[in-house]
Design a protein that fits this description.
The complex is a heterodimer of chains A (about 190) and B (about 180). Chain A is built from seven helices and no strands. Chain A has about 190 residues and is mainly alpha-helical. In chain B, helix 2 packs antiparallel against helix 3, helix 4 crosses helix 5 and helix 7 packs antiparallel against helix 8. Classes of the chains: A mainly alpha (about 190), B mainly alpha (about 180).
Chain lengths: ~190, ~180
Amino acid sequence: MSESLPRPQRATDLFFAFQGLALQGFGGVLPVAQRELVDRRQWLSQAEFLELLSLGQVLPGPNIVNMALIFGDRCFGWRGALASVAGLMLVPLTIVLALAVLVRQGAGSPVVADALRGMGVVAAGLVLSTAVRLAGVLKDSRLGIGLCVGIAAAIAGAVGGLRWPLVGVLAVVGPLAWLAAWWKIGRRPPGRGD
Amino acid sequence: MHDILFGPVALDAASWWQLFAHFALLSLLAVGGAISTVPDMQRYVVAQRGWLTDAQFSGSVALAQAAPGPNVLFVAVIGFNLGGLVGVLATLSGSLLPSTALALAAGRYGAQRREARALQAFTEGMAPVTIGLLLSTAWVLTEPSRLRWGTWPLMLGTAWFMLRTRCSPLWAIAVGALAGVLGFV
């Protein structure tokens, strides 16, 4: 991490910073995180943010939690990691559980059930938009577009359509996709320009 | 009070443990974030164990989308609707502990190895896998309303709205709630 950037002074700085950005993030915190950590507080350069993001994405689990964890750990060790993740989760968790209690009290009412069903369809649309946005990166994939579509379709058919257990499906398709990418990367090494 | 603490579904100790263990396993499979394991959570919680209905499950995910904070909190709402605060503990700690431990280890170990071919191959290989899982998630979330005519326009319209405008998803969620109340979906 470069010297010129301002750094958080204490673990509590991390706690409040991540709490603030979590509370601004409806339907995903990642865009807010970039604005806060890079543009406003300047704790990270754009390049450092991208490095954290790609690390957070390669690892399993929630990307933003992984990022907060690794950033906090690099600043203040495990105390920083704990402070970042607690800031990210505590207040939003309280809010969402309070909402869940309210909804449960109205659980008998058909209005609440109808509203939630409609919101579920919108939630599906939000996830779909994430999938479409991610599909943009497949253009540059060295796997080739045909193989990418094949892998995505196989996963969607087995997990979403046939409802096979995820563990088994990933145990077969995961290593195959990894090996195929490994092989293709060897045949077409990344040029500095592409 | 008992309902808030333990939830409406009476679970025995073995079931609590199995719930935690299943979410912990999925935590390690959550390439592309926790939302990509929604299909398997639904398969386990609704189809296999019958702890929640389809409507309760999709409603839990939808509620979390309407609140601020990381998306992974939908896991807490599923836990709460199934087993109260103890359920939250089981699902949320299951979803976070394994991936968190791995991220800490990898963050300390791996930053400088990002150019390694195996790591690049992993990233590129998992991209289409993640997209397949996200498509499955969208499909599973429509389960309670698939036979209603308004479902597909609303879902596709939401995706278009998110891709084409910079507006907050809260607007789409409000429209969804209204469409549900008016009986379109």
